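Quick start: what a row looks like.
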Amino acid sequence: MGLKAYNPNSFAVSLVRHDLAIEINSRQVGTAKSQKKYRIGSDETKEFQFEVSTSLKSLISGGIGMLPQLIVPGKEMDIRVSGIAKVKVWGICRKIPVDYETSFRPEW
């Protein structure tokens, strides 16, 4: 999964950790957690690729119930990513809330 992050500041920041919940059509299907460090330059938008983890319970309650929606081409799905991202500047860390929603239409 990929997300774009924008740094509006006049200085670079480092994304040092993220803990995100992934929902499709209001059903949590997984999480994305990492402590890998990414650098975002000043006034820069950067795309990051995140690995999404899921459990059997999440697949049964969310994923398998959504299987028909996932395999039918052209059916729109709502995706939400929420949680916390931790950024660091000059040795000072700050937690930034993440709450992003979009619609997605698979085209297989």
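That is the whole record. The two ends are 17 Å apart (CA to CA). The first helix runs from residue 56 to 63.
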